[in-house]
Amino acid sequence: MKSINKIIYSCLLGVAILGGPGCSKFLEENDPSNLTPDNYYTIPEHAQAAIAAAYAQTRFIGGGAGIFVQNFSLPEVLSGTAKTETGQNSDLNNLIGLSYNGDNGLIGNWWSGSYGVIAQANQVLANVPDITPMDATVKKQILGQARFLRAWAYFYLVRMYGDVPLLTAPINNLTDPELYPSRAPQEQVYTQIVADLTEAENAELPWMDATGRASRGAVKGLLAKVYLTMAGFPLQKGASHYQLAADKAKEVIDNSGYALFANYNDLHTLSQENRVEHMFQIQYLGGVADNPFQGVLLPNFKDVSAYGTEIGSTVPTQQFFNSYELGDKRTVDRQGFFYKSYYSGGNGALKDVSNAYIFKHFDVIANGTSGTAGTAISSLNWPLLRYADVLLIYAEASNEVTAAPSAAAHAALKQIRDRAGLITLAVGTFTKDSFRTLVWKERWHELAYENITWFDMLRLRKAYKESNDSFVDFVGHVFPDNNAVLAEKHLLLPLPTFEMRNNPNLKPNNPGY
Fold it and tell me: 41 with 182, same domain?
């Protein structure tokens, strides 16, 4: 595995190696330059290739971590809403059982993958300003996108590991002392995240960008999420940052043109990528950068797909599926977020698969559908930020700074529940506390299996108890599927063992590891 200094130094050559573009619309283009370590960052095309390389680094979330698992599984199984049907990956099993340490492959991959994004973004920010001649607006937009990506990666790191090295410039030689950085306090990391996103807000980005690059809406949406997190644990900024979160989310609601899809199936339809409800996604294109998630999410060898390997490594727990309200459209078979039946071989007779599986990310083209064989090659993007999340951020944050929920907060929540076919009581029937609880429930049920739930648990220090539809303290919560018990140590991941061995300046590790 790569340690942080190797990742940073390797990105000296990152543009030459990863110069292939990173988003659907420009994945299909040929690199217009012949990049080598001696001539990059000299013409505008190099700037485009460099930022594309930074986007490409975000695909680490779909990267592998040994047999039958991918990195995205880590936040899902730690939330207690997902389990595995294979049991053949010890790292995944240890995460599910809450018995992991710094040797865990997924924990190492999230660290390395996030710093890979940061290293490439730092290269862009350090070198693109000197490219001349270059259109000033295009340059400003590329720099804004790099700041967005750096903030996005640090936001994962600080929530997962707490105090982490804060690196905002490239490492240009192997004797640089920053190859062995110390950990910066969490508040300092958040200050940098906010600074990067604030700068990106002013980068003249379009409100929406159907090519898949960061837009002004995505920047503001992520900033709203950052403020919401800062309001909770561990920083506990409280009312001031709830207000900032509400204000930033409201800017998106009022100005961006985003909306909820009328049909849940549009969430995983190729023609709807990077638009309407999708604010920011990891970009995939079959044959260039295939979506790697399909086999992992399929039932374990139940023959419902064109894929030869059906893994079932990350699937819903029955308890969580049962916790949706009666009549919730999100639970309707093959129309909402789940399926309990599918076609034999992907295109044959419909058959029952007994348990509920994730349909939210299901690629019908790749897997197949009734009468149409699947291609077993997926171009489906992976969601990172949806408009539904922004609506729920606004509902939660604005409720925290008023004596009772406002009509606007109620309307934001009601949009989510209306689409699900659920009745929402009139605004005047809610107290501050009852509205807060309902918003939390909607976050759990609407945003499930999008690498969001665990981070909500960390900032709230709460867990959802499905058996009685309530929220309980994080510490002491028992996962009903396997009886694993959350403890104080689980509020942070351990730093990877390989990193601790390589860099003594990182010691001590997080409490409990």
Answer: yes
Q: What is the 3-state secondary structure (H, E, C) of 396-435?
A: HHHHHCCCCCCHHHHHHHHHHHHHCCCCCCCHHHCCHHHH
Query: How many structural domains is the chain composed of?
Result: 3
Q: Provide long-range contacts, Cβ within 8 A and 24+ apart, for 463-472.
A: 463/80, 464/323, 464/440, 466/319, 466/320, 466/322, 466/323, 467/319, 469/323, 469/441, 471/437, 471/440
Instruction: List the single range of 26-30, 34-38, 278-282, 350-354 with lowest mean pLDDT.
Output: 26-30
Amino acid identity at 402: T
Q: What range defines the domain where residue 78 resides?
A: 4-198+494-506
| 350 and 412 part of one domain | no
> What are the tokens at 172?
């240009």
The answer to whether position 431 is within a domain reads: yes
Write the single-letter amino acid at 451: N
The tens digit of pLDDT for each residue in 340-354 reads: 999 999 999 999 998
**Which are the contacts of 84, defined by CB distance < 8 A and separation ≥ 6?**
68, 69, 73, 77, 92, 93, 96, 312, 313, 314, 315
pLDDT for 67: 85
Long-range contacts of 337-340 (CB under 8 A, 24+ apart): 337/264, 337/448, 337/449
Phi, psi angle pair for 355, to nearest 5°: -85, 170
Q: What is the C-alpha separation between 341 and 343, in angstroms, rounded?
A: 7
82: in domain = yes
SS3 label, residue 465: strand
How far apart are the C-alpha atoms of 292 and 314, rounded to whole Å? 13
Cα–Cα dist 497/46, whole Å:
36
User: Is the pTM value of this prediction over 0.90?
Assistant: yes
Tell me: do 370 and 400 sit in the same domain: no
User: HSE on the CB side for 245, CA within 13 Å?
Assistant: 29
270 located within any domain: no
The answer to whether residue 236 sits within a structural domain is no
| Domain termination residue (choose one: 352, 377, 402) | 377
Residues 362 and 414 in one domain: no
Query: Residue 102 sits in a domain of what CATH number?
Result: 1.25.40.390
Same domain, 358 and 298: yes
What are the φ and ψ backbone dihedral angles of 278, each rounded to 5 degrees? -80, 110
pLDDT digits (tens, 9 = 90+) for 83-128: 999 888 999 999 999 999 999 999 999 999 999 999 999 999 999 9
